[in-house]
């Protein structure tokens, strides 16, 4: 059985093996303390009197195999090196031996989190599948605001960070993602007026249809409507307006990016 803790926006599993105290794997303690796993284990071997069984313990082969199946993680037991696990007391003892400012600060965090878990005060951490669903919903919200690309990703990531204190971009290896400049957007009227020589919105729609960027169809009231084709989707976006339908849902408006003019030029339609 596994619980999870978060330190500096990174998720680490707490081991709860049968007849064992709750503990962290040596590799995870090393990551938290920002040093090699080898150095962590050397400290134990050089100071065995400071690490009784309730401070740290070696996993058995069966425990390592079981944990590998649960976490889908290679624990190196096939190579003859069984992993070591540290309780919060062991993590604290390590910090006093290593004498690292990072280790001391993180040890205090570990103690507080383990204490909260023992008292049942720690909030259950969301699973990766749950966070993926939350991120998808946040991205849809971003797209509703007209955000695309990195801007949408950063918007969604901020929502997850604010709600769960987890930075998915850092977790996924993209801590330095930057926001690209957002293109100006135009409806059919302003596109024709500002960028296409003052032509009417009706002519704009026909021009974009000829280019294969939008298609026409009739709604259930037989009104002419327009929608983006697959080719046109990179150059347009549906956005909510201040108006609402009788059902209360927002009226949406199709807006075009400035770069759609370049596509028309490439197709020699203007």
Describe this structure in words.
This protein is an alpha+beta fold and 270 residues long. The protein contains 11 helices and 10 strands. It has helices at 26-33, 37-46, 61-71, 88-98, 101-119, 128-144, 149-164, 168-171, 188-195, 201-210, 260-266; strands spanning 2-7, 10-15, 24-25, 56-58, 84-86, 185-186, 214-218, 224-228, 236-244, 250-257. The strands form 4 sheets. It has a 3-stranded antiparallel sheet with strand order 3-5-4. Strands 6-10-9 form a 3-stranded antiparallel sheet. It has a two-stranded antiparallel ribbon with strand order 1-2. It is elongated, with a radius of gyration of 28 Å. The model has no long low-confidence stretch (mean pLDDT 82).
* Distance linking N and C termini: 65 Å
Q: Figure out the total of helices.
A: 11
In one word, what is the shape? Answer: elongated
Strand order of the biggest β-sheet: 3-5-4
Q: Layout of helices and strands, plus pairs?
A:
Layout: E1 2-7, E2 10-15, E3 24-25, H1 26-33, H2 37-46, E4 56-58, H3 61-71, E5 84-86, H4 88-98, H5 101-119, H6 128-144, H7 149-164, H8 168-171, E6 185-186, H9 188-195, H10 201-210, E7 214-218, E8 224-228, E9 236-244, E10 250-257, H11 260-266
Antiparallel strand pairs: 1-2, 3-5, 4-5, 6-10, 7-8, 9-10
